[in-house]
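hey all, quick one before standup. I had two proteins in the batch that finished overnight and I want to keep them in one place so we stop losing track of which output belongs to which input. First protein below, input sequence then structure tokens straight from the run.
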Amino acid sequence: MPRDRVLTVGAIVLGVVLIVIAVIYWAEPAKSLPSFFPGHTAGSRHHHTKHGIAAFLLGIACFVFAWFRSGPKRTAPAA
């Protein structure tokens, strides 16, 4: 598998994972987050909206990166 294709597939997978994490941050209060998530606090009812926005934007950035990596290759104009 060419290196460009590996980067593209990796960026898409990472983008999906980050958007799922964003949805978890928006849907669950801090007490219900998995313990390995930043912002997990036992007994807290606070939602980490900013964490969700950051994860969402990073996921979109991964999709944009994959889109630009998968575009047609430019060739030098014939002289």
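OK second protein, same deal, sequence then tokens:
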Amino acid sequence: MNLKGIQLTWLGHATFRIQTPEGKTLIIDPWLAGNPKCPESEKTVKTADVMLCTHGHHDHIGDAVELGKKLDPIAVGIIELCAWLHKKGVKRVAPMNKGGTQTVAGVKITMVHAVHSGGIQDGDEMVEGGEACGFVLEFSNGVKLYHAGDTSVFGDMAIIRDLYAPTICLLPIGDHFTMSPREAAYACKLLRPEIVIPMHFGTFPQLTGTPAEFQKLAPDLNMLEMKPGQTIS
């Protein structure tokens, strides 16, 4: 696989780091310190130009406030989540909503639908975090990547294919809180990606879906099973 100057690193669960051809660093769903799948060497983030959050659950924004205050990235997310991050001290936010597109740090970011909840556990109460979403990222070199966030399969994934045509899809397969391998395999029939990278599996006992089961259900699928800490380019 040739990412044409992009470096993609999986940090476990749904957390990814992307370095763009221009040298900008993006962090998607920053959950590092408490993430049991994140390598110890990766738990301290040294730089982040953009921080994208698919929804407000702790295993996706666990380090968002700390990183936002420490490294001053531009935080991208649905408007309610960005408002909460700003209230917590993240200075630079770039809120958006589903169907919208904006360019941040040279990356064209489109927010797309996800079927999931999005409340934020703020202390001892659950507060409004807006709806969950996914992101389609289009880089300056033409590569298009879809991070589905937490979601079930939904028919409008075919619209994501028709409108944005992502060639690389990062899909949850763990079951219980998201798609299982069965739903993820069906999602690939709708999305028709060139490469699929499974995520959000094996972190907790409930997340029983495995890449092997996923591949068995979609034997013709070009699946890349990454290891936490692995970088592809």
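Flagging for whoever picks this up: The chain has six helices and 15 strands. Helices lie at 58-61, 64-71, 79-87, 157-164, 181-191, 211-217.
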